[in-house]
Amino acid sequence: MLTVDNIDVYRGETHVLHKVSLQVGHGEIVALIGANGAGKTTALRTVSGLLRPSSGRILYTPEKGKETIEISTVAPERIVGAGISQCPEGRGVFSRLTVKENLLIGAYLRSDKGVEKDLESIYKMFPILEERSGQAAGKLSGGEQMMLALGRSLMGRPKLLILDEPSLGLAPLVIDTIFDMLKRINAQGVTVLIVEQNAVMALALSHRAYVLETGRVVLSGPSAELADTPRVRQAYLGGE
Q: Which pTM was predicted?
């Protein structure tokens, strides 16, 4: 579905990503783990079109059998329209707008008649959002804002859902709820690419993973195998 092929990315004069390559297959959950400052968010922002690689390319195939397109230079709104939605770090809700207005923003590129039906599906997924539908999003708790940000991303009917640190600042029970929901979303056919500081949960959730260190992919493979390697256990899982 997604192929990041040998990309270099700069932030100003800083060379953040060095020849990074990764793949996300249809129906997979793929995790990108690493320490703060490793370049994980930069990688996601580049896939979403918010940053541009100085070299390399990013290829995207919306569905099996469909035409592969290069999205390295495509505008962010066109990338969203092609079926890639990102749930950003820090949630990024519009605090003065209501919960319902935030959700409808996620469907702003859609012209089909299924928006209201999908809104009902989000409310069933997260009943608290229906209860708070007329409330300003800025008054929600951190966990509720995360549910809102995830629901907003799903309102675009993504084929590939990208998440940046969904557990950041949340209570353990809320984190469990979010990760359980991600499993359900994936089971419904949505492919997931997740950046997550909590490596234990990321590796437990995902099928495959990549380890990013100082802007370079240093390890990759099935998540269960990576979780059992001494390097990953020592650096990210608190093991020996």
A: 0.91
